[in-house]
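Let's practice the habit of predicting before peeking. Look at the sequence and jot down your guess about where helices and strands might fall. Then scroll down.
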Amino acid sequence: MLLSDLLIAIRPMQVVGATDIDVHAIQFDSRKVEAGDLFVAQAGTAVDGHTFIPACIDKGARVIVLDNPEYLPKEPSASVTYVLVKNSEEALGRLAHQWYGCPSEKLTLVGVTGTNGKTTIATLLYEMVRAMGHKAGLLSTVIYYVDGQAFPSTHTTPDALALNALLAKMVEAGCDYAFMEVSSHSIAQERIAGLRFAGAMFTNLTRDHIDYHKTFDNYRDTKKRLFDNLGKNAFAVTNADDKNGLVMTQNCKAKVVTYSTQTMADHRGKILEEGFDGMLLSMDGQEVFVPLVGRFNVSNLLCIYSAALCLGFDKMEILRVLSALKPVNGRFETIHSPKGWTAIIDYAHTPDAVDNVIQTIREIKKSTNKLITVVGCGGNRDKGKRPMMAQIAKRGSEQLILTSDNPRDEEPKDILKDMTDGLTEEELRSTLVIEDRAAAIQTACTLAAAGDVILVAGKGHEDYQIIKGVKHHFDDHEQVRKYI
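Done guessing? Here is the structure:
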């Protein structure tokens, strides 16, 4: 593509050099640069990409996009064009969108953000519209789909180049819709810059990623940017039960639609009956049975229902399809033992998510039966939530087993110490600390009697553990079934 055609997508502060040149590819990783490429230099969190500009030029880069004027040449170059921008990360997003033919403008693109529920909502919306006969794409924490073709998921929201490449594949495959999880990291790092969203949804906001955003207010305000950038023809679906729900849509130009299980809203729902295999719900006064469990899933389903109505689908058809949808991998998945106990595999990895799952189990199980919770915390992540998660799990369970999750570069014992610091001496005496996750799950299965429930929390769909930077195969489902 001609550089002059690419630059339409951004507003350069300064261009030094020719613009009537062909760009062979866009790169932000200096190791991938080849002759004729455009390299976007980003400051980054660990390494400043601007320092790799000379190496990229040696490899034959024709265009350098940068936001640090100190790296502009003192004399114009005949072979390299420099493009100075205000923000390199935003420029990368917009350039990637232009490079791939502005795919978001050829799709009905809907984003979902919040702390918990994103994967369930995005995945079930994708499955819903496909069940209604439409082609659709999905970008989620678990997997990426282009219509029915699966691609491994690398991030909740991929980098700008990969993201736009996937959206372009969806356009090429004839998709009408695309549903994507929008993480706070992707918003902060401008991975979604340039995309046109037909709608956005907000689930809830609780403590998460404070290691990255530093404060809860920063985390909240980053999420809000998704709604701030919606156009007047878009829709914004938000959770009226969350105190931040209406904060998200303040000054939003899009049509705002609310949902709730507790207060006045455009769309309301409540549980009529529930068991471990599903719930009978009332949604806007209409009864529907769904094979999902938990109050948090009532909110998730209301969010899906509200968004589907905004997309123009028929109410009764939405409810019919909802009743046939299956739980998402690793989200309150049940495994029944021949001995009569039930295991729940769930991705819950924040204090609020753990509390939600535990409260759901306690509402369904008999009071005479035990809840045995197996939970750990990830390494190289927010340490402040570790004692909180241990407290919540301990006070909601008859038996708590603390174990390892993904320790990454940290010592598992140090992570477990942070968790046990949240417990009193009395609580510690009745808590098992088993570093080996397989042994912890096996112990829980051994302790369970008929009617008891085992919650294995934290990993859900993940089929690996990262220990000292090395990825090892590990699947909570497999461990439970192996014991059975």
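How did you do? The longest helix spans residues 295-310.
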